[in-house]
Amino acid sequence: MNRHWIKVFVAAFLEIFWVIGLSHSYDFWTWTGTIICIIVSNYLMITAAQVLPAGTVYAIFVGLGTAGTVISEILFFGEPFRWEKILLILVLLIGVIGLKLVTDENAEKGEAS
Predict the structure, then answer these.
(1) What is the C-alpha end-to-end distance of the chain, expressed in Å?
(2) Whole domain around residue 61: which residue ranges?
(3) Is residue 86 in some structural domain?
(4) Which of 27, 29, 55, 79 has its CA 20 to 30 A from that of 99?
């Protein structure tokens, strides 16, 4: 896995924090952390999309961020656990992994198909 895909995964990880921060920030420091996560997350996603296929980068970024946010809300913030949510997250993650697997090497290097 090259460094650009690592940027996408780190950006998605930070997305989890800023999405949760939008709901749970309550003072200057929590809002500052949320804003920093938004800026860094989007910067990493944008720089990765300059080299990798933008549609795939965005789909992976949003998919992983969504799955992580839902799981975090269940584990840490008392969101009700439902098997339907877990099943749908698994379907989402299968789609994200599938997109990563079908992205050909030429597209990853920024060459025209």
Answers:
(1) 21
(2) 3-105
(3) yes
(4) 79
Q: Is the distance from CB of 44 to CB of 7 less than 8 angstroms?
A: yes
8 within a domain of the structure (yes/no): yes
Model confidence pLDDT, tens digit, residues 1-29: 589 999 999 999 999 999 999 998 999 99
Using an 8 Å Cβ cutoff, are 55 and 40 in contact?
A: no
Q: State the pTM of this model.
A: 0.79
Residue showing tokens 């290097």 = 109
Total count of domains within the chain: 1
pLDDT digits (tens, 9 = 90+) for 24-77: 899 999 999 999 999 999 999 999 999 988 888 998 899 899 889 999 999 998
Using CA atoms, how far residue 4 sits from 44, 57, 67, in Å, is 9, 10, 21
Could you tell me how far CA 106 lies from the centroid of its own chain? 23
